[in-house]
Amino acid sequence: MRILITNDDGINAPGLKTLEAIAHTVAGPEGEVWVVAPAFEQSGVAHCISYSHPTMITEIAPRRWAAEGSPADCVLAGLHDILPQRPDLVLSGVNRGNNAGENVMYSGTIGGAMEAALQGVKAIALSQFFGPQNATLEDMFESAAVHGAEVVNTLLTQAPWGEGADYTLFYNVNFPPLPASETKGLAICRQGRRKTPGFGIEGQVSPTGRRFLWVRGSEQSVDTGPGTDVTANLAGHISVTPMRADLTAHDMLKGLSALEKAV
């Protein structure tokens, strides 16, 4: 098996090392693992691509490349320039922090997996929820490290992938904020929504008098209701959410059809 991996925390991120170990286990001794990851952190860039300027890319070791671009750029580079053949699977992560709830909309980790799906390649995004119970572990990614390969193999062998659909499925996996030994099984969930103010802005003035704005995060450990990813993670489960890059509100189409006669 040939696997391409990327992330949004950067080529030197500890979560990428965790993902490399997962990918090597899944690929097997005869498989290949290729790394194409951002040279610098790209958190929050979502599905951004560097459409208006070129992306510099550097080979730093065999099958290991750093790109001055987004995770989606890295996937495009891997598929169309670097790998000798298309991969069987793209893995994105393991993100430092959860990509559950509304975080999905901002996540570069999700953006990398989404681009792979748009290119017709099976893709899984993996993220590690952090909290008090795993913050002091020697390896904060322990839950993902221990359970990641099994989750990926389960999805590869037992989950549907929607081949032939206009928008191919990809999967969003979040590991709970717990030690590996306390992590529970899979929970198939929908994307939740934290009913909090969400991201905000905090302004500061530099010593030179220039004004800068910092994006401020929000409380993450907020229950988002039954059957949702955040709630499953907070209950100790590994959440799995099937996703597509189709933003259509399908439930509204029938009700809105009456407007066609009004114009």
Q: Your description of this structure?
A:
Its EC number is 3.1.3.5. This is 5'-nucleotidase SurE. Nucleotidase that shows phosphatase activity on nucleoside 5'-monophosphates. α1 (about 15-25) runs parallel beside α4 and α2 (about 70-80) packs parallel to α3 (about 110-120). β9 and β10 form a beta hairpin. The strands form two sheets. The protein has a nine-stranded mixed sheet, with helices on both faces. The chain has a two-stranded antiparallel ribbon with strand order 9-10. It has seven helices and eleven strands. About 25% of the residues lie in helices and about 25% in strands. The model has no long low-confidence stretch (mean pLDDT about 95). By secondary structure, the chain is an alpha/beta fold. The longest helix is centred in the middle third of the chain and has 17 residues, at about 140-160. The chain has helices at about 15-25, 70-80, 110-120, 140-160, 230-235, 250-255, 260; strands at about 1-5, 30-40, 55-60, 65, 90-95, 125-130, 170-175, 185-190, 200-205, 210-215, 240-245. The protein has a single domain, classed as Survival protein SurE-like phosphatase/nucleotidase (Stationary-phase Survival Protein Sure Homolog, Chain: A), CATH 3.40.1210.10.
